[in-house]
User: Fold this.
Amino acid sequence: MALTSADPTVKRSGVPGGTKARRLRDSRVFQDWLFISPQLFLFLLLTLVPFIFALPILFTDQSTFNDPSVNSVGWANFTAVFTNESVRADYFPALRRTLVFVALNYTTIYIFGLTLALLMYEFGIRRGFFTIIYMPLMLSGLATGYMAVMLFSQQTGTANLLLLELGWISKPFDVFSAEGTAFLLPLMVGWRFAGFNMAIFLVGLLAIPTDTIEAAIVDGSSYWYRLTRVYFPQMWPSFIIASTMALIGAFSVFDELVALGALYVNPEAKLLSILFFTYGFQINRLALGMTLAVITFIPLIFVGIILLRLQRRLEYR
Amino acid sequence: MRALVDTAQTERPEDERRLTYRRRLKVLNAIAVSAMIVYSILTLFPFYALAVRSTVPTTEATTLHLWIPEAEEVNLNAQVGNLAVFYSLDLADLKEALGIPQTDFLGARTSLQDLIDEYDLGEEEVQGFFSGFYTWNGWNTVLSSEFFGALMRTVLITVVSLIGLTILSIFTGYGLAGLHRRDQRIVYSIYLLQMVIPAMLILLPQFLMIQWFSNLFPGFSQPGLTRTGVQLGSIVAINVKGTAFSVMIFTAYITGLPKDLEESAMIDGANRMQYVRHVLLPLLKVPIVGLIIVQLPLIYNQFLEPFVYLDPDNTTLLPFIQSTVGVFSTNFQVIYAAILASILPLLIVYILFRRLFVRGALAGAVKG
Assistant:
């Protein structure tokens, strides 16, 4: 003890600068930061720094990534949503389709994910079923979209032909129609993520202390009572995490839409993500596209942050 | 005496009630299992239908096929030019297979019957050559050298990204372990933000910045090794930058390790890097497997970033598939073969390592 406390004083009197550097190198905080910094540098560079880059551009009329002449336009990009007719005609239908997709996609999480999780929980986790249900998660968004086309094209869809043959439907579905895209797309996305959502809910169910469930069973309560009074109140962290992911994920759905021809031929699949993409890369409205993305997503990020805080508070309660 | 009678009277209904309860449980169990079976069939059907449709010629697309269709005979009046277009056929292959000298010129309007007459071929020989095209035209077209090139680039990016992400995330998790100090908690919250930032929001600004950065490299403007390297490098950088999940899983796991583990390693004279390499790494098998299982499908199936950042002739699997689909936009057989070809490699990996995937899904979902 005496030795270690004496040691630095000796050295400090000798070479002050060297000691400081040495103490810094030996300090826990500094070493921690050596471990943290490589990834943090990349993360900040690729996630937050781009916004500093982009911020001045929001107030200009920059049209492409290599636009030679850029003029300042003030807040015009921000007000374009309300004043510019062509932007209104693009933005509001896309917003409506996106909101419909978000709502239906959220429903599929519970229809597929929660139901499957409850089945698994009550009747035992069967590895074989789990493997099959989880399998569509290996698909790309692109493949999911093309599968929707393969199954539900009006003339050539396999599911359409099969259902017609069985006589279960009289009129084939059409994935390229307005209603077809609105309903079939969330269905396919829900199918793709069913295993993932099931896993989230299943983990929430498995975390419930079994004595509360046993107490409810001994009391002779009905299953519905057990669900709403025992399971669900203790599953809030799972519900919130699933909601956060569904919300953020649904707003940036892109690959599936490309497969449905959203970039070129199918206007019904033009959701907000496609709009931002085409403004940036196809129709030379870069600054406008970035501004629209910012005013759409910033409120969403705040909602997400609130949900995350809520989830953490519930989890450690 | 009275108590005895009472028990004798109540025992029977109790017994019956237990029996009916057990029977009810059995019925419920059967219903649950059949529901699972039905859902499994619904899950597997699209995969099966895709496999079948990749062999169904486009001319047959409007009829229901639930099995690989039998090859039809090729119409001998069909013209060579049309067949070459429809089947994406290389005429040199046709000449070689049928024993026609490569120097002979085949006009586009020459029919197969003309060929049979002119070169004195057997009808079976011609039919035999074309029978493979009827069913496997899609696969023949898709499995080109470009496909395997794109697949190799995807595998390269996936492997490098996963290794890089794992190493960097272990470092971050170790640096943050415990979350004792304020700076550690701030860094942790910054990573949590990743979960709520939509990919579409960063796309355009990120592209702007990466383009600016790429142009700093001399030689980026012309096609060449520098350009390819910088482009592939930016994809890898995006993939290894860390996610909320990667940081959470390692921070939580390393925090949970006993504290004296590090102290005893330090007493033995190890520095912190050696501790990570020799003590921590072997202990982190569970979170490493968990991370890889979650990230593997995401990185392998990445479409947006390669689509935007890579040149079309140097791209990865999914943008390549998308452009193939664009070229053969009316040939469903080719499109579905291409889609199936793109998902098969990962599907095979999944089936081989299904145990790890299931275990990882249940463990990984614990921490979001």
About this structure: Chain B touches chain A through 93 residues (CB under 8 Å). The CA atoms of residues 220 and 229 of chain B lie 9 Å apart. Confidence is low (pLDDT under 50) at residues 1-10 of chain B.
